[in-house]
């Protein structure tokens, strides 16, 4: 949902706590849109009480990656500029493509700093480590790593985002 919550996140969080016993082998944040990660910010204090082995995020969310941060700044600037144009158009904004739905989609691209801070801080250290994964990367059993995050038989292939700007 473009707003990140359709008033179900509290129930989802309660179910997650109950079903996992507050123990997670891996927590996956696919990308930083609000509809995918807002719950991590909203419930960061509850996630901080979990035992989390690893947090997996795409390379595009890595604050140490200059390309990722440049792309993020460009995306945020574009979303802000488009939103400003549509808001300035007033009642005629729908004709310009600035319907309330489009404005909600643009908002989905912004405003996730709380969730990003929670994830990057490992929920104040509750998670053991963070992995920033790249497209094509595989996680599977090997001599060096018998099982990704201790889940027997787990094989992970990261689909995206690509690092190639083309």
What are the main properties of this structure?
two-stranded antiparallel ribbon, globular, 3-stranded parallel sheet, 166 residues
Structural notes for this entry:
The chain has 166 residues and is an alpha/beta fold. The chain has helices at residues 9-20, 34-42, 44-47, 66-88, 100-108, 113-120, 122-125, and strands at 23-28, 51-58, 127-133, 138-139, 156-157. The strands form two sheets. Strands 1-2-3 form a three-stranded parallel sheet. 19% of the residues are buried. The model has no long low-confidence stretch (mean pLDDT 85).
**How much beta, percentage-wise?**
15-25%
Strand pairing plus helix content: what structural class? alpha/beta
**Distance between the ends:** 29 Å
- Tell how many strands the DSSP assignment holds: 5
Secondary structure blueprint with pairings:
Elements (H helix, E strand, L loop, with lengths): L8 H12 L2 E6 L5 H9 L1 H4 L3 E8 L7 H23 L11 H9 L4 H8 L1 H4 L1 E7 L4 E2 L16 E2 L9
Parallel strand pairs: 1-2, 2-3
Antiparallel strand pairs: 4-5
Helix pairs in contact: 2-6
């Amino acid at each position: 949902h473009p707003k990140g919550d359709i008033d179900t996140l509290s129930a989802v969080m309660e179910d997650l706590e109950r079903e996992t016993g507050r123990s997670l082998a891996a927590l996956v944040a696919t990308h930083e849109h609000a509809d995918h990660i807002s719950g991590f910010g909203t419930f960061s204090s509850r996630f901080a009480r979990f035992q989390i082995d690893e947090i997996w995020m795409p390379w595009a969310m890595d604050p140490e990656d200059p390309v990722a941060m440049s792309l993020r700044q460009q995306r945020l600037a574009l979303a802000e500029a488009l939103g400003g144009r549509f808001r300035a158009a007033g009642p005629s904004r729908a004709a310009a493509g600035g319907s309330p739905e489009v404005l909600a989609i643009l908002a989905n691209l912004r405003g996730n700093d709380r969730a990003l801070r929670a994830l990057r801080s490992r929920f104040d250290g509750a998670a053991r480590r963070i992995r920033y994964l790249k497209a094509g990367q595989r996680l599977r059993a090997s001599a060096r790593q018998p099982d990704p995050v201790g889940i027997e038989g787990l094989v992970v292939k990261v689909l995206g985002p690509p690092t190639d700007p083309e």
